[in-house]
Design brief:
Elements lengths: L4 H5 L8 H9 L9 E4 L2 E4 L5 H18 L4 E4 L15 E4 L16 E8 L3 H14 L4 E6 L4 E9 L2 E9 L3 E3 L7 E3 L5
Parallel strand pairs: 5-6
Antiparallel strand pairs: 1-2, 3-4, 4-5, 6-7, 7-8, 9-10
Length: 191
């Protein structure tokens, strides 16, 4: 079917690629201290990190490192490359070792065992945008830690429209870390 004059006049959203995003940073279009992420081809401004968020990320980082040991690499607020239009910076990423393989590239979906987002003021963005993208990009499991409600939302079985199963976990248990046989993250006394 041929495009009509009306079709040609409609604005179309331009989706940036990861390469475009890097060029914007290299040329100064994005300042070095900008808190932004590339999600589904859009440059998204992220809210400032507040003390409850920072504290929770640090606590989870310490617990994950102790639990996983050398079986995984725990990355904190570093980019993951999920596809040509996605380079978010999850609060925590548990990825396959060794860490040296990420000197020349960011981890991709095949490297990622688990992504964790900690939300206080960013709950709608993390829940409605980032988790949906993680699922669409093939991340098998992602957790959303709600720093205000004291819950962990464990999302599994990814699909194009999001995760098929999301279970709210109150923080008084241990949860298996995907891809690490016998490793469970103790969530007791997290809040």
């Amino acid at each position: 079917m041929a495009a009509t004059a009306q079709d040609l006049m409609l604005p179309h959203r331009h989706r940036y690629t990861v390469d475009d995003y890097h060029r914007m940073a290299d040329t100064g279009i994005l300042s070095p201290d900008a808190r932004v992420e590339l999600i589904d081809g859009q440059v998204m401004e992220m809210p400032p990190i507040r003390p409850p968020h920072a504290s929770m990320v640090t606590e989870l980082q310490n617990r994950l490192i102790r639990t996983a040991g050398d079986s995984a690499v725990v990355r904190v607020q570093n980019p993951v490359r999920l596809g040509p239009h996605d380079e978010p910076e999850p609060d925590l990423a548990v990825v396959t070792p060794p860490a040296t393989q990420y000197r020349t590239r960011h981890p991709g979906p095949a490297d990622i065992l688990l992504l964790i987002e900690v939300a206080d003021s960013s709950l709608p963005l993390d829940r409605d945008v980032k988790l949906r993208r993680y699922a669409a990009c093939g991340i098998t499991e992602a957790w959303l830690v709600d720093a205000n409600a004291g819950t962990v939302l464990r999302c599994r079985e990814q699909g194009a429209e999001g995760y098929r199963h999301c279970d709210a976990i109150q923080g008084q248990c241990s949860v298996p870390i995907p891809g690490l046989s016998g490793c469970e993250l103790d969530l007791r006394h997290l809040y």
